[in-house]
Design a protein that fits this description.
With 236 residues, the chain is of the alpha/beta class. The chain has one domain (6-228): Rossmann fold (3-Layer(aba) Sandwich), CATH 3.40.50.720. The protein contains eight helices and seven strands; from the N terminus they run βαββαβαβααβαααβ. The chain has a seven-stranded parallel beta sheet, sandwiched between helices. Helix 3 links the parallel strand 4 and strand 5 (122-127). The longest helix has 29 residues, at 91-119. It is globular. The chain starts with 5 loop residues before the first strand and ends in an 8-residue tail after the last strand. One of its GO terms (molecular function) is oxidoreductase activity. It holds the Pfam family adh_short_C2. Residues 5-194 form the Ketoreductase domain. Keywords: Oxidoreductase. One of its GO terms (biological process) is monocarboxylic acid metabolic process.
């Protein structure tokens, strides 16, 4: 069993998830990361999880709890996109994104709650998106999934708060990742021009806020939507 508190980051093998894993490790957590492929990432214990499968989630948690102990910080970061204009978006594309991004986060948080109730403390941290509040053309499915995280997190907050368990949503804006790096320069400039701070964020700027919410300093914050978006979504 680990002598350190355990943090579990889904989708932690790259991008924002990997930055969060590094930040929490620096804060003294024993970090376990998951990916659908179970890819090995140097410096971390890794497990394979398909968040669209309840059995896969159960198996992963059983392994984590039996090997290292109960995770007390959960970062629900795993997700997918299947962008398309609404008239071309299939029912399957809509359902797949909801299943991975919203129902997947529910599966992780629900299973985690079993352990958190035993230790009477914990952090449920959901990685949302500014588009969950603003909306985004071509992303009806993705925006719906991220908006749904807010209602879900606030319900977890009300249901579990008396047990010392908090639930919050971190809402990034445009972040420097492989996905945004593929945008054409003209489109990148248009997007940056709509952001009050005039630039995309670095993944570490998202990870630093997650670290704060995971810490004891944030013990009285729950049910919050915390924007890390350079001012893009303010007023929403």
């Amino acid at each position: 069993m680990s002598a350190k508190p355990i943090a579990f980051v889904t989708g932690g093998n790259r991008g924002i998830g990997l930055a969060i894993a590094h930040s929490l490790s620096e804060d003294g957590f024993h970090v376990v990361i998951s990916s659908r492929s179970g890819a090995v990432v140097a410096g971390f214990d890794c497990v394979s999880v398909d968040v669209t499968s309840t059995n896969s989630v159960d198996e992963a948690f059983n392994h984590i709890e039996n090997t290292w102990g109960i995770p007390e910080v959960l970062i629900c970061n795993a997700g997918i996109t299947k962008d398309s204009l609404v008239m071309r978006m299939s029912d399957q594309d809509f359902e797949d994104v909801i299943n991975a991004n919203l129902t997947g986060a529910f599966r992780i948080a629900k299973r985690a709650t079993k352990g958190l109730l035993k230790i009477k403390k914990g952090r449920l941290i959901f990685i949302g998106s500014v588009v969950g509040l603003l909306g985004s053309p071509g992303q009806v499915n993705y925006a719906a999934s991220k908006s749904g995280l807010i209602g879900m997190a606030r319900s977890f907050a009300r249901e579990l708060g008396s047990r010392g368990i908090t639930a919050n949503v971190i809402s990034p804006g445009f972040v420097e990742t492989d996905m945004t790096a593929a945008l054409e320069d003209k489109r990148r400039q248009e997007i940056a021009g709509s952001i009050p701070l005039g630039r995309f964020s670095d993944v570490k700027e998202i990870a630093d806020v997650v670290s704060f919410i995971a810490s004891e300093k944030a013990g009285y914050i729950t049910g919050a939507v915390i924007p890390v978006d350079g001012g893009l979504g303010m007023g929403h």
